[in-house]
Write a structure and sequence with these properties.
single chain, 298 residues, alpha+beta, Alpha-Beta Plaits, 2 domains, four-stranded antiparallel beta sheet, 11 helices, 64% helix, 10% strand
Length: 298
């Protein structure tokens, strides 16, 4: 019973944490878009790019057109990605819609980097890309082409940033129809590439894993300490080629952020231990990423 209650509490905590991260991501995205990009007439990708074009051409408030377009795309999200992703996406869209109004009111008299469009597009893209990346790490989305990217990523192991980049190139090019300025279009492509790069950096940093090979006479004590981090330890029999002596070697897979903790554990128990650490391209299974396999339809 206690175990069940503990599991339920952990699940609730993770869900609350996800919603907080999504809200933070939406605030960052809203700042990048409405403080640095929109006032400087700098195109962006995704649905924000379409909404910006409509804003420059008609003057319609971005929060309303953004919300209206997302309503249709969310129907696709509900069907393909399921309720868990869709509920968080609806939450993200509502939070962003709210903060778009708040941020624009708070910065109505502020016009940053008006004479430095390149810096504006870089800073705006960093905010936007980081915000989208945070939303993705919490199983959420800002809506728009992010939904399309998430649908593709569900079935194919393709970089989220790359999918969004491909989807958005036409949107940025079409901004010329309103801005009539090819220089602004070029800045838009800079924004697109930086945004895609930041998305990949934020998403991949949360998924990066490392592997350890550890040789120590105190392997049992070290293994138990690493197990306390909820990381598995595999102990293998090995033989030193030079000494010919049998010894135990531990194999550990862990998140990159846990590396320093593992090093500290080993140092505290056996400072003379032999340790090999290396990065791994992908780790799939319980506690790591979910394995995605394309099914062949015959």
């Amino acid at each position: 019973m206690e175990s069940t209650l503990s599991t339920g509490s952990n699940q609730i905590f993770r869900e609350i944490k996800d919603y907080i991260i999504i809200a933070l991501g939406m605030i960052m995205y809203g700042i990048g878009w409405t403080v640095f990009l929109l006032p400087n007439n700098l195109p962006s990708g995704a649905l924000a790019g379409v909404v910006s074009i409509i804003y420059w051409g008609t003057g319609l408030p971005v929060q309303y057109t953004y919300f209206a377009f997302n309503a249709a795309l969310l129907l696709l999200s509900l069907k393909v990605l399921g309720w868990r992703f869709s509920v968080k996406t609806i939450y993200a869209v509502c939070v962003l819609t709210f903060f778009l109004s708040v941020i624009q009111k708070l910065t109505a008299d502020v016009h940053l980097l008006g004479d430095q469009p390149f810096m504006a597009c870089i800073i705006g893209a960093v905010f936007c890309g980081s915000g989208i990346g945070l939303a993705f790490t919490a199983n959420g989305s800002t809506g728009g082409t992010d939904i399309i990217a998430a649908v593709i990523n569900k079935y194919k192991d393709i970089s989220l940033g790359r999918v969004i980049m491909i989807c958005d190139m036409i949107i940025i090019a079409s901004s010329y129809l309103v801005l009539h300025n090819w220089e602004k279009v070029l800045y838009g492509y800079v924004t697109l590439f930086v945004t895609g790069y930041m998305i990949d950096q934020v998403v991949n940093s949360a998924r990066q894993s490392v592997q350890f090979f550890i040789i120590s006479k105190k392997y049992d004590e070290i293994g138990r300490a690493i197990n306390a981090l909820h990381r598995g330890v595999t102990v293998m029999d090995a033989t030193g080629f030079y000494t010919g002596q049998p010894q135990k070697m531990m194999f550990v897979l862990a998140k990159k952020r846990q590396s320093n903790t593992i090093f500290q554990i080993i140092h505290d128990i056996d400072p003379t231990a032999f340790i090999s650490q290396s990065a791994v391209i992908g780790v799939y299974g319980e506690g790591f990423d979910k394995l995605k396999v394309k099914k062949n339809n015959k």
